[in-house]
């Protein structure tokens, strides 16, 4: 349940105690106005003589919490927060009705408002003030005026603002005025004079005796409320009781009726307050009362909190009247993984209306600087060490070194989250003789907080290792065609039993054939562990003769071929051994021609005289050599091969391949004729299946003449001389891809001329 209480303010003067209830007696005495204001401030505003300067003054109680928690546990604190009477960093705009009916009220304000501003400053050092007045639409530009913009200079507020207030507006207008426009103008910044500071608490004190036009100079009441709430500005409405005005909540009757309760609506809509029916003589009292009784929302935020520490308040926020004490239920929780043995820190900053209360300093008794309460709580939580040290000792399985077992040196560790490494005690201790079989080892460690950690391990001593059998690889030369007899030694040693007999297959002294043989030796100890080792015995054959049997074969492609095309000879070299053929040289002879320029033979691709080659035993190597003939030829390509080593069989060192190169031929009949003549073209020794393209040069070929060569390498085709084609000599071209072009001459003559009149060309 939320509990809210008003905190008592006590002070001592001339031996008399005053509290809030003493205000009634002050009010009843009807003493002078300034005295009334001071008495009110003493009784209501903290920071007066008996307030913050008092030794027992507090804002957050308790403001320091120091406790110890185990990880994953919580601690609850009953928290009290005393709210400031005046909102933090207030920007106060005094908006005063400047019409004639407010003369008495303005007179009181001129003499007493300075005391009020000073009192607010004492409570909130970082406070600014502005003074503005409003009238009626009939006052033209004077309907709203900022006499003094927001400033922290109280002298300017008094002399340029309060002292300049006059009741000179309104005239004979009805009681309804234009304070709605004035509120809207203030929210908009008043031409830069009422622009509220960032992070301030804006408060507009509306002092008037009449309702407002709505709309007021083009702005509705909703416009004004929206503009004020957009600036987070609150309105303290001071409703002055005069014979003329209809009050801030009036309805404008009888001259200008409208919806009533404008003052209440703007106060409630902005989160402020309204003071109704105020006597002009008590205007200062009521202003103080309004400023010190505003709704205040108390919330909080955490700063500088360790990740393992959380702070929650229930409820999270509370709304009270300024000056009240708010109670929260605070829960401080250390996370389950909070670092043990460390101290966690957190600061809880309480906020008033979302702002940090107070400023940097204030003046005590007008002279001594004193820090303004910062409304924060400091939390310190020592995380208890509840975790035992982590002890670690590992299971061991150890081979016995003798009949009695084995001495085992081992390491056990203990690490504590707080103390770090701590000493460990184990039974049996490291270095003890462990017998054959199973022994349980127990290790313990205790940290400085008394937490005890334990770990156990199982140590097993056995004879689980097989004997170490050793037999080495051997390589010998055959003593005959069946191999060789080999004598060898194999050993076996056991960690417990010592030397043991060994059995090997094949046994020492056996006949080992040519090649490799695996020898497997075994030994068994008294515990039944069997050890094995293998070796490879290699019997090498008798020395190999220093010779290489090389051979060559030849093949020529294509056959037949044609002049101008490449013919390739492929020579295959082989080596039947028994040694690698070194210094192998191949020589090739091609059919000759009358003119050496008509034959072009290329280099051997390998194994020539200038680059001998090697052929491994069983290897095969292909060597190529190209040749191009420009004339037809038919004959044999001969190949010869030799090597550096002795060749036991030279009958295959020579090879022959047949070669045939053809020259295509073209003839035409007749060789002379008139336009329109059909010429018979014949070819032979052309590549079978190839395509021959026939064209006149010069002249016009009636259609592209293409003919395919037959299987026997010949073709026949008719080529037309067009009737209107040119006269004179020309050539018939025959073109085949990959061959030189062939051509035959032809003479075109007039139709009335007979061939005997001309000498034909051959």
Automatic annotation (TrEMBL):
Residues 250-259 have a biased composition (Basic and acidic residues). The keyword Kinase does not apply. Residues 243-275 are annotated as: Disordered. Keywords: Repeat. CDD domains: vWFA (cd00198). Residues 91-291 form the VWFA domain. The keyword Cell membrane does not apply. One of its GO terms (biological process) is carbohydrate metabolic process. InterPro entries: HYR_dom, Ig-like_fold, VWF_A, vWFA_dom_sf. This is VWFA domain-containing protein.
């Amino acid at each position: 349940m939320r509990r809210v209480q008003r905190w008592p303010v006590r002070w001592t003067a001339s031996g008399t105690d005053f509290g809030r209830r003493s205000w009634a007696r002050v009010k009843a005495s009807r003493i002078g106005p300034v005295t009334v204001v001071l008495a009110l401030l003493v009784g209501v505003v903290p920071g007066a003589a008996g307030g913050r300067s008092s030794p027992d003054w507090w804002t957050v109680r308790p403001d320091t919490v120091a406790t110890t928690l185990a990880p994953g546990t919580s601690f609850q604190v009953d928290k009290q927060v005393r709210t400031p009477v005046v909102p933090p960093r207030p920007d106060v705009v005094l908006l005063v009705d400047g019409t004639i009916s407010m003369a008495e009220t303005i007179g009181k304000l001129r003499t007493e408002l300075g005391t009020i501003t000073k009192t607010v400053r004492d409570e909130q050092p970082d406070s600014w003030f502005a003074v503005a007045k409003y009238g009626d639409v009939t006052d033209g530009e004077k309907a709203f005026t900022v006499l003094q913009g927001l400033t922290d200079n109280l002298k300017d507020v008094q002399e340029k603002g309060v002292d300049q207030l006059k009741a000179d507006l309104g005239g004979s207008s009805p009681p309804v005025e234009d304070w709605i426009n004035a509120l809207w103008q203030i929210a908009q910044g008043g031409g830069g004079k009422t622009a509220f500071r960032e992070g301030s608490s804006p408060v507009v004190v509306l002092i008037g005796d009449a309702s407002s036009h709505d709309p007021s100079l083009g702005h509705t009441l909703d416009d004004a409320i929206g503009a004020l709430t957009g600036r987070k500005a609150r309105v303290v409405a001071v409703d002055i009781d005069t014979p003329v005005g209809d009050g801030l909540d009036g309805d404008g009757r009888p001259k200008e009726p409208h919806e009533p309760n404008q003052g209440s609506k703007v106060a409630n809509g902005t989160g402020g307050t309204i003071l109704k029916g105020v006597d002009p003589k008590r205007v200062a009292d009521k202003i103080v009362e309004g400023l010190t009784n505003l709704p205040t929302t108390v919330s909080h935020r955490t700063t500088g909190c360790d990740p393992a520490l959380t702070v929650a308040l229930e409820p999270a926020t509370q709304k009270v009247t300024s000056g009240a004490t708010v109670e929260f239920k605070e829960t401080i929780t250390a996370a389950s993984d909070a670092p043990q043995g460390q101290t966690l820190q957190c600061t809880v900053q309480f906020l008033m209306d979302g702002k940090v209360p107070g400023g940097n300093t204030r003046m005590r008794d007008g002279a001594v600087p004193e820090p303004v309460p910062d409304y924060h709580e400091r939390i310190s939580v020592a995380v208890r060490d509840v975790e035992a040290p982590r002890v670690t000792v590992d299971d061991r399985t150890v081979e016995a070194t003798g009949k009695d077992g084995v001495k085992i040196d081992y390491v056990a560790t203990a690490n504590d989250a707080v103390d770090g490494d701590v000493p460990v005690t184990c039974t049996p201790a490291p270095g003890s003789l462990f017998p054959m079989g199973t022994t349980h080892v127990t290790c313990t460690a205790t940290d400085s907080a008394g937490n005890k950690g334990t770990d156990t391990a199982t140590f097993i001593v056995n004879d689980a290792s097989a004997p170490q059998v050793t037999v080495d690889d051997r390589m010998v030369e055959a003593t005959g065609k069946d191999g060789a007899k080999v004598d060898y030694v194999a050993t076996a040693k056991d960690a417990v039993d010592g030397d043991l007999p060994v059995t090997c297959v094949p046994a020492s002294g056996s006949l080992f054939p040519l090649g490799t043989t695996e020898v497997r030796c075994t030994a068994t100890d008294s515990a039944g562990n069997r050890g094995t080792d293998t070796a490879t015995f290699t019997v090498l054959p008798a020395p190999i003769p220093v010779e290489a049997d090389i051979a060559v074969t030849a093949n020529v492609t294509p056959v037949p071929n044609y002049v101008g095309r490449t013919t390739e000879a492929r020579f295959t070299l082989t080596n039947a051994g028994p040694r690698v053929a070194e210094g192998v040289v191949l020589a090739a002879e091609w059919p000759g021609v009358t003119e050496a320029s008509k034959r072009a033979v290329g280099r051997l691709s390998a194994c020539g005289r200038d680059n001998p080659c090697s052929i491994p035993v069983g290897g095969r190597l292909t060597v190529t050599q190209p040749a191009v003939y420009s004339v037809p030829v038919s004959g044999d390509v001969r190949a010869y091969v030799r090597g550096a080593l002795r060749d036991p069989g030279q009958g295959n060192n020579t090879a022959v391949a047949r070669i045939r190169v053809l020259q295509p031929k073209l003839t035409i009949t007749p060789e002379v004729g008139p336009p329109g003549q059909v010429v018979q073209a014949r070819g032979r020794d052309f590549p079978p299946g190839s395509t021959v393209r026939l064209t006149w040069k010069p002249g016009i070929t009636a259609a592209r003449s293409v003919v395919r060569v037959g299987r026997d390498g010949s073709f026949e085709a008719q080529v037309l001389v067009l009737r209107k084609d040119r006269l004179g000599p020309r050539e018939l071209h025959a073109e085949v891809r990959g061959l030189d072009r062939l051509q035959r001459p032809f003479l075109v003559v007039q139709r009335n001329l007979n061939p005997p009149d001309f000498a034909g060309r051959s």
